Amino acid sequence: MKGFQQTLKNKITIAGQALHSGKMVSVNLIPQPVNTGILFSRSDLSEKPVIAAKPGNVIDTVKNMTLGTEEWRIQTIEHLMAALHGLRVDNLLIEVDGSELPLGDGSARYFAKKIKEVGLTTQKQPRKVRRITSPVWVMNGNTTHSYLIALPGKGLRISYCFTSDHKVTGNQFAQYEITPENFWTELAGARTIAFSRELEELRKQGLALGGNIDAAVVVGEDSYLNELRYDDEIVRHKILDILGDLYLLGPVEGEIVAIRSGHKLDLELAIKLESLLE
Ligand SMILES: [Zn+2]
Questions:
Q1: Gap from CA of 200 to ligand 1 centroid (Å)
Q2: pTM above 0.85?
Q3: Ligand 1 mean position, distance from CA 125 (Å)
Q4: Of 46, 76, 187, 236, which residue has the fewest beta carbons closer than 10 angstroms?
């Protein structure tokens, strides 16, 4: 985890369809100087407002991570954030010409591939890593019995326990040491989960218009409805989401253990860690 801060070698543009609105959006990733961190901006608004990717700027965690204010928002930031955390991009401005990032293929590969193509440049300041120094946890014991636990550890390691009585998915457990290499080969390609029934419902409500069948692992009644990229793709995507959500803190070092958790608990843990760690 040691080393120097990094940014992209050059500006890149990534375009694609947004999940919820179905609109085409274009995203510019613009290199930034040391100690900037990750910033998002709405380039389609006249003021071009900028917001830092920090826990206090999250306004919604239902099904995705959303940054914003009362006036404007940028939603579905988590897969790009996972790519930045996984590939170790410290400083970047992300300009979006709409209220939502493109869905791409439902994974982080879509963003990570472009970032790897343009390459990273090393900057002249050491990385600022938040090290977990004692156990910290958050839980939701009322309904889902979900837990998210942070422990001290070298590097960053994330474990996830996915439980389901659905016969197609079953229970899934996975644990990864997060390095740029592991991120790219084991996690970046894991797509988000969708149940075939839910898709119908969302379409009726006008949501998920941009969700084509191959941008998710689609779980049917008796089988997956598309080809998997990994046998345990669902749990790998859960780890990817945590990696993205925790990047609201900047680079993190420690051991993360998650049981059935989601974006809401991720944010609660990030807020707690932010108040405890330097
Ligand atoms: Zn996700």
A1: 19
A2: yes
A3: 31
A4: 46
